[in-house]
Write a structure and sequence with these properties.
globular; 13% strand; two-stranded antiparallel ribbon; alpha/beta; 10 strands; 8-stranded parallel β-barrel; TIM Barrel
């Protein structure tokens, strides 16, 4: 396993990390989760991603029980949580980043995870109804109180991230260190274009999610939605349009030929493609079976096969490379 700094911070994260979105509490029980996390940790994965909203809190509960059972040395791993949507429908408990919600959410996550602190905490989405300054102060206080070590954002615009950073800088507060954007062959704009100045100006790190485009890039949706896939879960109906889009499926079929010529799988090529971007600190992978964890980790050996010529061939198939501003 190789490790990269989380942006300009001193924290090192494994190039491939392990996330619990969709799986823990939905597709995966505690025993399976334990096996998957143990295998990932065994090959050097040190970052385990979670969020308050995943499986309505159950994902954190499962991960907390697993961490307690495995009893790893606390300094040897990194855990995250994210807040925005909430677990209840109260006016100050849903779709907000106000101070009350963030401080209470942090305590709730720590209780479910059975930890004294998380390493990374994210504002899971921007909140247009709460002043960014209020959110920045709340996140600063969470870090200052030792309940998290670094804070960042997820799916924020470059302008919103910069505003938060400037507020923190002005008041000498803990600054946002990382962003968690979707990044894969079909979703490139934020990571490759919008955030470009932030990497240089504030040293932004990225913990990217959905490298396989929710499974589309594995090729398993080429002939329809298979039984047991995430697209069959009622709460993930919103994924179906992208997973069944004929244009995207056609591109996946062409990409499969490139992967085959390289002697690697589509999974390996898709993950390795993300890792070719030096601004990606870590690629969050997911799995519901131990075999998937082991298979994902083999992508590390595929990175060197993606030469500039191969990357150019992939770009021709995708036809979506972000353009430079004139």
């Amino acid at each position: 396993m190789n490790y990269r700094h989380l942006g300009r911070s001193g924290l090192k994260v494994s190039e491939l990390s392990f996330g619990s979105w969709v799986t823990f509490g939905n597709q995966v029980g505690e025993d399976q989760a334990c096996e998957c996390m143990a295998v990932a940790y065994g090959v050097g994965v040190n970052f385990f991603d979670n969020a308050e909203v995943y499986a309505s809190g159950q994902s954190e509960t499962v991960m907390g029980n697993v961490l307690k059972k495995l009893a790893w040395r606390r300094g040897s791993y990194i855990v995250s949580s994210k807040f925005f949507w909430g677990l209840h429908d109260g006016p100050n408990e849903k779709n907000t980043l106000n101070r009350k919600r963030l401080l209470e959410a942090m305590d709730g996550s720590l209780k479910r995870l059975q930890l004294e602190y998380v390493d990374l905490v994210f504002c899971h989405r921007p909140d247009p109804t709460t002043p960014i300054e209020e959110t920045v102060w709340a996140m600063h206080d969470i870090v200052s109180r030792g309940k998290a070590i670094y804070w960042g954002t997820s799916e924020w615009s470059a302008a919103e991230i910069m505003e938060a950073w400037q507020i923190a800088d002005k008041h000498h507060l803990h600054k946002p260190v990382m962003e968690q954007p979707q990044y894969n062959m079909f979703n490139r704009q934020k990571v490759e274009h919008e955030y470009t100045r932030l990497y240089q100006d504030i040293g932004l790190g990225t913990t990217t999610w959905s490298p396989l485009a929710s499974g589309l890039l594995t090729g398993k949706y080429n002939d329809g939605i298979p039984a047991g896939s995430r697209a069959t879960l009622q709460e993930y109906d919103w994924l179906k349009p992208a997973l069944t889009d004929p244009g995207r499926i056609g591109k996946v079929r062409k990409l499969a030929h490139i992967a085959a010529n390289l002697g690697i799988s589509m999974v390996h090529m898709a993950l390795a493609w993300c890792l070719k971007n030096p601004h990606v600190s870590t690629v969050i992978t997911g799995a519901s079976r131990v075999e998937q964890v082991s298979e994902n980790m083999k992508a590390l050996d595929a990175v060197e096969k993606l030469s500039p010529e191969v990357m150019a061939r992939i770009d021709i198939v995708l036809g979506n490379k972000p353009q430079e501003d004139e």
